[in-house]
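Dear V.,

Thank you for sending over the compound details. I've combined the ligand you provided, manganese (II) ion, with the protein sequence from our construct and run the structure prediction for the complex. I'm sharing the raw inputs here so there's no ambiguity about protonation or stereochemistry in the SMILES, which I know was a concern on your side last time.
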Amino acid sequence: MKDGKIHNMNVAFGHTNTDLDCLGSLILIKKLFPDFRLVKSRLIHPAAQSLYYLYEGYFDFLNPKDLMDEQIDNIIIVDTCTADRVNEYFGNIRNSSPSIRIFDHHHAANCDILGASLEKGNFGANTSFLGKLAMKQGITLLPEEATIALTGIYADTGRLIYENVSREDFEVAAWLFDMGASLKLVKSFLETIKEDDQILLLNQLLLSVEQFNIQGHVILISNFELDENIPGLAAIVEKIMDIENPDAYFAIFSIKKSKTILLITRSQKEKIDLHELLQPYGGGGHHLAASAKISNREGPEFKEEFLAYLEKSLAPATRAKDIMKSPVHAITENMSLLEASLFLEKVELTSMPVVNDSGTPTGFISLRDIMKGRKANSMKSPVRAYMSKPVIFSNSSITMREIERIFFKHHIGHLPIVEEGELVGIVTRWDYLEYRKRTADDRRTPE
Ligand SMILES: [Mn+2]
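Below is the predicted structure of the protein with manganese (II) ion bound, written out as structure tokens.
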């Protein structure tokens, strides 16, 4: 400082490579703890850059190196509990033994920041965590501050749709809306692909992706040559995930200038654990989003090697046999409608596949079909006369994706599973929905 004296100071910061949720959290820290100065990371995540440059003035950031001669009393850390992600700040803090308070919304994260008191919250966005505190204290925000905070919540919750979302995320979002947050601006900050060269690359990549079926999974792979690494590649990869909707996408970028390969990957299946998968290549990240840098390799031969690696490493996809009900009740064609209705009542079902003498499904009979027979006063007629046909059936090795397609295409709610001409099980729309719920697509873990 100018007078050469040591001043006591309180500071707050988020993780390195500042993202939108960090910025949302920090703007609220400024309101909640006005005697804390905010410190910026030397790295701003590409997705957060436009908001950061527009609203820099609202944060009044210090640089990490400004901390060097200061006596720091108190530190607040937001949106991380990992020492590695706050190194750049602590590297500049000397001669201080500050008390550290952390606000972090990451569920499973182990805290390795020593001596810190950790406050954890189950929120989709860390911004909601601090927003809830600000609401309780009756704090008011400027519309610009509300816009920054709401962008943070939308970013980390996938616009309030990811698995991690809590009711507080909605509550705080509503509060920020009341404080004058502009949805128009929030939307523009969330649009990660806006540079012309990004759009060009997106189009080129879309033309070069190849689709493979590996162990029943729909896998996309692209190999693309770039002169040099450009920012925002991950956003392009995510956009392609949205457009093409594969189970996983492995984007290989061969960077000519540095003779390295940048492998950016996204998955939407728990069975395809990318963090695990990229370990042998020195990469990592999260379950459903990971990347690796590989030196001295050529794109085309790396792609071939990687395909072979996927073939032997991926666990097989979930198939009909994994979720079907088996054994399954069936009615024979020659049963009378009366017998069929009694049987349905006995087993408490409203419909059932119909099989011929050799056990092959030939139709489907429901209480509604039987009702028609009752009205026509022909309850003694054989089921054959009133069942719906032809019956759509499939085999036990079809994947969940194929099951879904059959349900939608034929507007059916039951899919009999047949092996060697015999009915062996049934998959209902309900079984399928239960499976979807169990493996709900938490496509992105919180950042
Ligand atoms: Mn976060």
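A first observation: The pocket of manganese (II) ion is lined by residues 21, 79, 105, 125-126, 156, 446-447 (CB under 6 Å).

Warm regards,
I. M.
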